[in-house]
Amino acid sequence: WTYTIQLATMISCSALKLALSIALLALGASAAGDLPDECKKFTLGECDPAQDEKIGEWKIPDDGSHGDINTICQTVCEIQEGCNYFVYNKETDVCALYHYRYLESCQLVGGLATPSIDVCSQGEDNTCEAFIMEDCTYKGEAVLTETSVTDSHSCQELLETIGFAYHAVYFTYSSKSH
Q: What are the residues facing 86 on neighbouring strands?
């Protein structure tokens, strides 16, 4: 997915660590259960799924004439044996199918100060509605870039604690160096 996020200001944290462990991070754009609606605003990026786990991909234009493209891509996944996860890229019109949900390979996490990453990660990642925005374009101004923060939880806590002083409303944490 490629989304554009309109932000007034944001806090960006980076670290020199090469891997960010977000195992079982199930943030939903249509989350199951009683997750807060704000969980829909979490994003992931810089993902690197194992190519041997990719089942295949199909170019399916999103012209709107055949229904919701997410539903179409999901149906293709349901038809394909062994498919447990799909990604639709709106920029390339490609529906990619995978054996597994590769979110633990993502190096970038973004979100609001609340709810916490832990609260949103309690969603069920095996539901058909466990969607998350990926590879977003953040249009807000980075008002604080902090390189000493070591993980996404700490970056979120920094936003919650001092975001008001910078008029920041969103954080991004990348385990790669900016």
A: 97
DSSP string of the chain, one letter each residue: ---EE--SEEEEEE-S-S----TT----TT-STT--GGGGG-EEES----GGGEEEEEE----STTS-HHHHHHHHHHHSTT--EEEEETTTTEEEEESS--GGG--EEEE-SSS-HHHHTTS-TTSTT---EESPEE-SEEEEEESS--SHHHHHHHHHHHHHHHT--EEEEESS--
Average pLDDT along the chain:
77
- pTM of this prediction exceeds 0.85: no
**139, amino acid identity:** K
Ranges of residues in the chain whose predicted pLDDT is under 70: 1-34, 123-130, 177-178
Nearest residue to 36 (alpha-carbon basis) of 121, 107, 94: 121
